[in-house]
Write a structure and sequence with these properties.
This protein is an alpha/beta fold. The protein contains 10 helices and 8 strands. An 8-stranded mixed sheet has the order 7-5-6-4-1-2-3-8, with helices on both faces. Helix 5 packs parallel to helix 8 (215-229) and helix 9 runs antiparallel to helix 10.
Length: 322
């Protein structure tokens, strides 16, 4: 981290997975941005490689040899996107950190505007996507997902905002102090209460390669967001259980009254079967909700590492914090 008498250091945090086709252009734009802002700040570029198989790591090796600003860690396996972001944050040295994807859908040049807002006192400056190159179905699914997560969360989570953000060093320190077996960084930062502001921008098309976030991964990320930042599912299970209990008691009273008035009534085989099946389904639903929370407690108690680093570039292995 820079001292009070020097220019601030901005860390550019970039998780990568099979981004060999994007790295040359990404580095060129980051280098150009660094030269453009050299009177305002210094920069470092920190990459975390989730075990790429397309030559991404070899390119990072070459970049790190000729540019000491390029620092990188390669994991022993793919530990997931959120863990990759968290590992990056823990190893940045800057006064502020810009999180960006390697596919250049989020323009790094927006750092100039983010930087100005950060200097005005905002601890979190995030990009708000007003346009993105998705199909109608995926775009609708994302909007609905953002809306649902925001409504279920205990705190407000910005809608149409991804992981493209600039955060102050104080936010990084707060993240480092928190513990989560399945981190959802976006919601975690939103719930910390730091002064935040959004910057609208149009998202570009992916430069090269395929997106790593298919529908299945988006669903898993959404589930993580809901269960990490909301107690509503547990409370809903409680209220629904009480409601079902009240209905069961009313139904019991009704059938007892019928039996008292007419003991020759046939037994309600169909209604009994329906009630049994409904009870089984309801119990399974509740157990699923409880199981999601227990799973997170189990993972937290197990204390798995955020990631395991296999190789480092321009990073001292004694400084690893995983």
């Amino acid at each position: 981290m820079s001292n009070a008498c020097s220019k601030p250091l901005i860390s550019i945090s970039i998780p990568v997975l099979n981004e060999a086709g994007n790295l040359p252009v990404l580095y060129e734009r980051l280098d150009s941005l660094a030269h453009k802002m050299e009177n305002h700040c210094e920069m470092e570029f920190l990459f975390t490689d989730n075990r790429s198989e397309d030559g991404t790591w070899e390119q990072l090796k070459e970049l790190s040899k000729r540019d000491p600003r390029v620092r990188a860690m390669r994991f022993s396996k793919n530990f997931g996107f959120q863990n990759s972001i968290l590992a990056n944050y823990l190893h940045t040295r800057g006064d502020a950190v810009l999180q960006i994807d390697a596919d250049l859908q989020d323009p790094p040049e927006l750092l100039e505007q983010f930087f100005e807002l950060w200097q005005q006192g905002y601890k979190v400056v995030y990009g708000v996507r007003i346009k993105r190159p998705d199909g109608f179905f995926l775009a609708t699914f994302r909007r609905f997902g953002y809306w649902l997560i925001d409504k279920l969360s205990e705190h407000e989570i910005p809608r149409d905002a991804g992981d493209f953000r600039l955060i102050d060093r104080s936010v990084v320190k707060a993240i480092a102090q928190s513990k989560s077996a399945s981190p959802y960084i976006r919601g975690q930062i939103a719930g910390m209460g730091f002064q935040q502001i959004g910057v609208p921008y149009a998202r570009d098309a992916r430069l090269s390669g395929k997106s790593k976030f298919n529908l299945s991964r988006l669903l898993r990320l959404g589930i993580t967001a809901v269960f990490n930042h909301s107690t509503i599912p547990l409370r809903a299970a409680t209220f629904l259980g009480v409601g079902i209990l009240v209905l069961s008691l009313l139904g019991t009273a009704y059938y007892l009254a019928l039996y008292a008035l007419d003991s020759t009534l046939p037994r309600g085989f169909t209604s009994i079967q329906l009630m049994i099946l409904f009870g089984i389904g309801l119990n399974a639903f509740f157990l699923g909700i409880i199981g999601e929370y227990i799973l997170r407690i189990y993972r937290l108690m197990r204390s798995d590492p955020i990631a395991i680093v296999d190789e480092c570039l321009n990073i001292n292995t004694n400084d690893l914090k995983l």
